[in-house]
Amino acid sequence: MRTALVRRTVLTASAVSLALLATACGSDKADTKTDAKPSAPASSSAPAAAAKAKTNAELAGVIVVQADLPDHVVKEATPAEAAAAAGAKSDKPQCQPLVSAQSMNPVGTAAGTARTKAVAKGKEPAADASPEEKAKAALGALGATATSVTLASYEGKGAEEAFAAVKTAGTACAGGYTGGQGGDSLKITKVAPGAAVTAGDEALAYTVTGDADGDVMSMELVVVRKGNTLATFSALSLAGTAEQPKAVVDAQVKKLG
Q1: pLDDT tens, 38-57?
Q2: What are the DSSP calls for 55-86, one per residue?
Q3: How far apart are CA 102 and CA 221, in angstroms?
Q4: Alpha-carbon distance 70 to 190, whole Å?
Q5: d(C-alpha 162, C-alpha 165), whole Å
Q6: Are 203 and 125 in contact (CB under 8 A)?
Q7: How many Cβ atoms are within 10 Å of 128's Cβ, its own excluded?
Q8: Which of 69, 111, 123, 256 has its CA at a distance of 20 to 30 angstroms from the CA of residue 55?
């Protein structure tokens, strides 16, 4: 069963709980008490090298929230999720930047971080839908693309260096690697260029293929640098093939200014 397989793998950023959240919340039941309206975009007037790195609190003010993505269910990552992700490691040191980017971790040493999760909403069943139709809609929601978003801010040229590290790893690790966390592991068999992304000061995208106990999983990884902030987007689906999270990327980059 794919749900069980994903639950046992690393690099998923709580995709199972996030997908279940979308099923439970529906289109109008997401928690919006603390994020009733989109936050104002961050100022981008200062050059990256001269700008002071943002703190955790400052990044929390510019990360996407529910009001920014009405077609998604958005939930802030918990401290427990962040702590668990911090242990994600690669069997190949040169591939660690990819594992970090997929696991809601900053690449390299960041001065501030913020994390959240967004899952695309499925089509809502009609009010008079049959139990079978409602069950089908629920299963469809579980196959929606779930995206983990991580913002990391750096001093000096740290963001440029972190971006370069991911780009280098994408080439060096094209043939695969293994990511591990908490005793679990996921074998990555291929890293290939994804659909081109034009955003921020520089951006890259990869399609990452994994082997979860014989089940093939295709995940999308997008990395965008805006000034001295690096935004990483790691997307997967319990159905096995994720879509590139364009709406999430666009909304987040807009908020970075």
Answers
A1: 444 444 444 444 578 999 99
A2: PHHHHHTTS--GGG-TTEEEEEPPHHHHHHHT
A3: 7
A4: 33
A5: 5
A6: no
A7: 6
A8: 69
